[in-house]
Fold each of these.
Amino acid sequence: MKIIIAPNAFKDCLSSPEVANAIEAGIKKVLPSAKTEKIPVADGGDGLIDVLLEPLNGKIINTFVTGPRYKKTNSEFFYSQNTHIAVIEMAKASGLALLKNSERDVTQTTTFGTGELIAEALNLGAKHIYVGIGGSATNDGGMGLASALGKHK
């Protein structure tokens, strides 16, 4: 028997690869001889980078950006020097997970930090940039992002 394990992340709990590992462990307890194949997936929100790290053969770039409530925050994105591909999770710079429940007010949030991540990827030489827009705490239509790129040199 072969079982394909293709989970998304469990929000605020486990990444997609962690969920796949947990499911596989459960299957192996019940069906020790079963062959399993883990294919973690992401919907474009939290966990997108985790899913792409291995197949795209790149690394995580850490940087500070403007968070969703205009405070500097530590963030990251994926970059492959070999392919010049960058993958950015909007959630890492402009996401709900960066805010307390009491701070979640789309009239007070920005995508500026996501634009800063894109600018940093461009500075590294990215030729192809993919942005996963799930998990956002914003509703500015990308105006913050565009504003940050307008300042990019």
Note: The first strand starts at residue 2 and ends at 5.
Amino acid sequence: MAPRASLNVAGLTLALDSPRRLDLRSFPEYYRPFLGPPGVPPPGEVHISVRMEVGDPARPSGDVTVFDTGDSWALSRDSDSYYLRLHPNRPSGPVLWTAVISCDWRQATVHCGAAALDRHADVAALAPPLSYPLDQLLWMYLLSFHQGALVHAAGVSLRGQGLLFPGKSGAGKSTLAGQLAARDGFRVLSDDRIAVREVGGRFLAYGTPWPGDQGAALNESAPLCAIYFLRHAEADAIVPLSPRQAAERLLPATSVPWYDPEPMTRVVRVLDALVARVPAFELRFRPGPDVVALLEGRTA
């Protein structure tokens, strides 16, 4: 345990800092490849400061509700900051933590309740509350500031080329990912959530620590060369889509903060650029090895 650590997803590094030791054992196992020691980020990566504290923050005056689930978490903001509060079993449940985030999403302080403290070898350690909803909300907003978006998709690297397979639950992402993982040359970055970013004039697909049924979560990236929208069919086929058709299918599969106009606009712009520059297709397939061979031939 240490007072500092880092968490990297899609070239965006959260630099965790705390006056108490951080209990990194609290992270789910899929986070392990994305955790690292504190230090200077590699060139091209973005550092975001996240301070962990114990105790409640000062109650803001004049904050306006941005989004409220009604039963677990709520997001509000004032002229300087966003406030994300987790309080399950409302209205009777206590606030477990409050994240105070600067409006440019470059700095955050997470004020944790006493329940986040754990004693290990007689030392009080703080369990970082970087799980749902804080983790995915942070990256949804952070990606919007850095030419990116979080997509409900499987993603693989085939001979160094990134392939994206967006789709809702039940579309076959994890099934296809399992088939691809069994073949030489394929590396499954994730079977459920992929981050995409424009970096250096090209779009990259990044693995994330939020896997699906196959449990695929690699801290790797690949240049994105094609988008395949999945459709169950009687015969395997690859059908080209226009950028407009691709945008119409990609939008529902993307985490977009519809309730917050500025980041919403940034994400939509990223998607427009993505479908304009990366070819998109409908992948009609039956579960089986033939579709794998079809994809291999397409990228040969």
Note: Residues 72 and 88 are 4 Å apart (CA to CA).
Amino acid sequence: MSIELKGEAREVALAEVQAVLAHAAGERRAQLAGLVAEIDAGAVESEEQLLESVLELALQTGRIRAYYGPGGEQAAIATLRRLPRGQVRGESAREVSEALGALAGKELGAVRIAAVAPGAFTLSIEAEGVEALVRLDGSGARLQSVGA
């Protein structure tokens, strides 16, 4: 799989990877240097997971928004959506939304959220005797159950 990077998405990705490269050593440094070369060439071919990791960390810490503003943040998010983990997150969100359609039009009874681990939550929605339980974490949204 190849991810083409242009414009602001390319600039943000390149700058962030170079920032991480400046502090890396050993094998990680070589991988980052390879990723810089791929971004320079305009497409990420073999280091997609590494690019995901760099962009995810920079987004989570707020670094991208602080350095590149809302436009840079949106470019990085758009890039992440095209990478493998971003595609999985998007698909899981679509599946959960589709399953929650069973609650559409029903009178809402209760909504609860519970922290189950650092960065992980469950969302419980009850409507007319039907309960949906959704897990939300760094991997995305996953339906845990729907039933009476």
Note: The chain has two domains: 3-82, 102-147.
